[in-house]
Structures are given as structure tokens and as C-alpha cells.
């Protein structure tokens, strides 16, 4: 009997060899697809795009909800040498317009539910505008999906060649940045097989299991892992907006084996009452990968105690992956984000760019030894500013231990300097996340006339807990029992909802601004 790993992997080859295998088993629209049906749908879109005269490197932007269409359009663009641009449907109209203009998008695809954003913002230079859903009528300037696809075959397009993305950072520090890599013209089936190898690195099993999609499909991390799963032959169970209990129900119903999640999802599931958590069977889980934001060690330990040693971690950014922390290695070295992946070196440099020894904290740089590189679109100055030679930084500080495992302390811009001492908010937030009354927390530095900055915690209480001075004092005491006093907040404010991106990153810029207004400085 042929072992699954000996078979051809990648979505296109799986569609040829196993057309009846399930590719999508659940979606908000109720639509399900086999691999054969998924490939045919993508081919049809690709042929229709080709008929419009789009050229290699042209950008097709789409703002689509979590559903099957996002996968179809992603596959279609990348099999004919185009760049796809995924837009967060939660963006405001002027944000859509800014990104569309900066990207130079040739085509725009959206869903009828999101047309209002584009009606307000316009559609920049995108000459081709397609709307999905809503039947056979379309507003001015748009064509319906049915009219766009009419008459085009669902067979593979001629002269297939691999495209890529143009990705925009989540923009937590200001205006988003467009990240692009050179197109290499590979055969799409070979490129899909490479994505299968990526999935295998996280123990995604070939031609077996179901991958849960529970974060925003516009996000690069979510895309990387659902593509890694799809290309090894796992079916996707796609959810809409995240809900903690519905996620647990989906894990049981579809016998989910793999997923990509962010730490805030772990926190929200752990906050469910014990009787709710115990109601659902999660024993099918094999590999749950998280990234995008720091995961407090206590949260990760609690998840491991609940689900078993199935929690993997990866570190990097939209600019490129850097490390993997396998579950057993993390348990040996709690807090690590792992060791470098193949083709990558991690460097810790001081302010002058000199390498630092093990356990010394400095700027984290990622060096691709396989020759791959990126640039920020139309911004050579910004591209140069994050590079030292071939190595680049995404703005984090951390250290390598004596065994070469990376530990991230915090974002360089988030570091608090109080009385000349460096304080890393992520460490403090990790401790405070364990307080039973805290639903979410941001630790920031605020102006202090004597020390330069002092530590403040801004807390979102769990449902049913009322803010009070007594609770603030209890939170500070909770922290002081677990960390050195100089790291702990000197004051606590409360908020009804802290601003986070969909991937769980705190938008600290928004939180800090009100505290620094009028100080005449930002740090």
C-alpha cells in the first residue's frame, strides 16, 4: 500500500489524484466542496481573469467575508502570475481607498454586504470591479460574479505560472505597509507542493484530518496555515466571526485535527465556565499553531493542560517566518518562540549592529540564507531602514539562549524605560492575564516627571465584574506577588473594550495617545 507521504501533494495534484476528497466541509454560507470542485472553481475564475487581459504582477484586491470564495480567488490569482491583495472587511472606506491606491490594484472583488465601504471611498484605479452575492444585479461600475464568469471554462488555464501576494501589515503603529516579493514564475503545482511541505513542518498529516479556520481569512497568518492544511489534503471547516463556545462545538462536530489561532482566542475559551468547556470533546486535536501576538506562559500552560501537548508556536511577521516552537520544546523552555526554521538565521544585535552573546537582550534580526527577500512597495527608504545587510527586523527585542532558542521580550517601541531601567510590558501583561477578574489588559508607560515613565495597566474586566479602587489595588498586589516591584503597575485604569486587531495585537498607539497628549513628548 502506498504511504500518503509518497503521493503527490498540493491542492492541484490532489484535485487530479483525489477529486472526490473533501476540501471544504463547513462554511458560513453552507457551501461545501471537494478538491475537484474547488480546483474547477478556481480555474474558471483564472480563465475569466485571463480574458480581461491582466498581466503578470497585476494586483487583484478582494474584500470578502470568511467563506469559500476567499479560497477560490486566492488560488485563481496565484495560478496565473497575479498578485492577490486581501482586504480586511472591517476597514473604513478611506482605509480601503488608501490601500487600493497604494497597491495599484487592477481589479477589485467584494461581496454585496460590503459595497457601502467602496461606495463611500471609491475604488481608486481598479478598472475591473466584481461583486459577489446579491443575484444578477450590480451597482454602477460593478459586474456580477455570474456575468464575469459566464462562458469561461473550469479547466486549467494555459501557461500557468505562480503568482504571489501583496500583503499589508496590520497597521497597529500607523499607516499600513505593502510587502512584496519577486515573482519567480514557478509551476503552480510545484509551488503548492512547497506549501504542503510547510504544513508538514507543523505536523499536518497528509490526506487526513480537518483544519479549523476561526480567524480572519484576510490575515497572512491564517492564510498560511489554511493553505498549508489544504495543500497536504486536509479539509477546511470555515467559521465566521470567532465565538469561544461555537469554536469548541466545531472542533467536536468536525473532529478537527489542526488549526491556526491567536492567543486572545485561548484566553476567551479559558474564561468559559468549566461546565461549558467540559461539554465538548477536543481529543481529535493534533496541532494547533499560534502566532501574531505574545501568548502569556500561564495561558499556554493552561491550554496544554486542557488540550494536551498540541500547541505549536511560530514567530515572524508578514515579512517572513523565523522560528518554530514545538510543544515538547516549549514545555522544556517555557516562553520560547522556538529555534530558526530551515533557511533562516536569527541574530541578536546591539544598537550599533554588533552581535550579542547568548542571553543578552538586543534587537532581533531575521536573516534568510536561502536568498529570499522582500521590499515595502514604493518605499525604498523604509525597506533600507529595517535591514542590516540581508538581515531584517520587524521591531522586536529579545535574546537567544545558550541552545539557540529565541525568547521575545517585547516590541522595541513598546518598551518602557523607567529610571533608566528597561521594562517589557509583554511580561507584565502575561502575569496580569492570569488574574480572574481581567478579561484583557494593556501595560503602557505614561509620563512621570521623576522617572521619565511609570507603568500603568489599562484593564478590561471580565463580564460581570465592576471596576473599583479595591479591584485596582488587588490587581497591583497580584502582580507584585509574581514580579519584581519595579515592573508592576503603579496605577490601574479600566476600559470597556481594549482596541485589538482581528489577530489579537493590542493597538497600543491608541491606548497611549490619551496619556501622552499635552506632555510635549511621546516617550
From TrEMBL:
Task: Give the span(s) annotated as Disordered.
Answer: 152-173
Any matching Pfam family: AMP-binding_C
Q: Which UniProt keywords apply?
A: Ligase
InterPro entries with a match to the protein in the record: AMP-bd_C, AMP-bd_C_sf, AMP-binding_CS, AMP-dep_synth/lig_dom, ANL_N_sf
EC number(s) per entry:
6.2.1.3
Q: Which residues form the AMP-dependent synthetase/ligase domain?
A: 13-367
Q: Name one GO molecular function term.
A: long-chain fatty acid-CoA ligase activity
Gene3D superfamilies given in the database record: 3.30.300.30, N-terminal domain of ligase-like
The chemistry this enzyme catalyses reads: a long-chain fatty acid + ATP + CoA = a long-chain fatty acyl-CoA + AMP + diphosphate
What EC class is this? ligase
- The record lists the membrane-crossing segments as none
The AMP-binding enzyme C-terminal domain is annotated at: 427-505
- Spell out the family assignment given in the record's similarity comment: Belongs to the ATP-dependent AMP-binding enzyme family.
Protein name listed in UniProt = Long-chain-fatty-acid--CoA ligase FadD13
